Amino acid sequence: MDGDGGRLDRPKEPRRSPLPRWDPEAFGRTSELIARFLGTGRFIAWMTVFVVTWLAWNTLAPRPLRFDPFPFIFLTLMLSLQASYSAPLILLAQYRQADRDRVNLEQDRARDERSIADTEFLTREIASLRAGLGEVATRDWIRSEFEGLVRELDEGRPAPSRAPSREERDR
């Protein structure tokens, strides 16, 4: 075979596309910016000013300067064109937001699972410490044992003799 076209040990050169290359991430960010602007009061205000100006110009201007007479076909075309681009941009922004929400949800689930596992581990550790403490002599237990021993000693010992008072000695 002629050239490297028939060789199986080398990958084919990628074909060049006649279409321009574009970064989908940059396009997505740009579409989100546009979609965010389309959803603001500023956009509505500017569109209102644009439409009112258009209608005023084509209604009140001298007849030779009017470029879109009464049925305002060109204005309708412009607004339809704007709507035909706005809808897909808004949908693209919503899909990207849904993807971000899905990633955040998965991260939250993973964090919650780790928290639950940590809580269960700490619960088991506390239970084992409590079980271990049951076998350890605590200060209160030792004190109560000493008090019991002192009581037993006091009960088994004869009452202390009292020293005679001076009056009793003098009698």
Automatic annotation (TrEMBL):
Name a Pfam family for this protein: DUF1003
**Protein name per UniProt:** Integral membrane protein
Native species: Streptomyces himastatinicus ATCC 53653
Instruction: Give the InterPro entries listed for this entry.
Output: DUF1003
Q: Where are the transmembrane segments?
A: 43-60, 72-92
Positions of region (Disordered): 1-23
Q: Is Membrane included in the keywords of this UniProt record? A: yes
Keyword Transcription regulation among record annotations: no
Question: Keywords on this record?
Answer: Membrane, Transmembrane, Transmembrane helix
